[in-house]
Amino acid sequence: MAETAATEASGPGTESRRGFLTIFTGAAATVAAGSIVWPLLDALNPDAPSEAQARMIVNVADIPENTAKTVQWDGLPIYIRKLTAQQIAAAQAVVTGTLPDPADFAARVNPAYPDYVVVVGLNTGITCALEGNSPADPRGDYDGWLCPCDGSQYDVLGRVRSGPATRNLVIPRFTFINAAQIRLG
Predict the structure, then answer these.
(1) How confident is the model over 82-132, as pLDDT tens digits?
(2) Are 185 and 57 in contact (CB under 8 A)?
(3) What does the alpha-carbon distance between residue 123 and residue 161 come to, in Å, rounded to a whole number?
């Protein structure tokens, strides 16, 4: 009788049932872990408004010459100015070795679109918004931007020319999509 009970417990099909239960339990545990981990990882992705702000597209075709457009990107004022032919020629003629923070024309503009300058519109000396986007605004001696707080002056390329500031205006990450649009970020 003892032999019969032992044979029934380890009889034919017992190994296949045990293997099936092991595989089924492992698969169920994997699905359960995935259902917990996936929402946690998905919560780390940026939401749609944040994603749109991170990759902002700006239309620059509507900017008249000698005027700038201001957009807010990543919490910063971004100035996009369209230069005139005279401003480009004057900016290229500057001897960069005489500047407090030397930078030539090619380092400050996109070579494919040299008539557009894109800079962060905050003074590099003290954090203050600059004036000079409109032709009617005070622009200082270099036809660029002027800080009303400390008197720092920047040229049309955002290069510091005088005042307490010693660094050029920051150039944000941007790319031209085409002649009419740029992407910030």
Answers:
(1) 999 999 999 999 999 999 999 999 999 999 999 999 999 999 888 889 999
(2) no
(3) 12
Give the C-alpha distances (Å, rounded to integers) separating 96 from 74, 92, 101, 155, 162.
30, 9, 8, 12, 14
Helices in the chain by DSSP H: which ranges? 2-9, 14-43, 48-54, 85-93, 105-108
- Cα separations (Å) of 89 from 138, 142, 156, 169? 21, 13, 11, 20
Backbone angles phi, psi at 67, to 5 degrees: -135, 155
Q: What CATH architecture applies to the domain 52-184?
A: 3-layer Sandwich (2.102)
Q: 123, 117, 118, 104: which is closest to 163 by C-alpha?
A: 123
Q: What is the pTM of this model?
A: 0.73
Residues 6+ apart with CB under 8 A from 131: 137, 138, 139, 145, 146, 147, 148
Look-up of token digits 């707080």: 149
Three-state DSSP state, 129 = strand
Joined together, the tokens standing for residue 103 give 């930078």
Looking at residue 51, its pLDDT comes to: 60
- Grouping H, G, I as helix, E, B as strand and the rest as coil, residue 77 is strand
What per-residue confidence (pLDDT) applies to 24? 85
Averaged pLDDT for residues 171-182 = 95
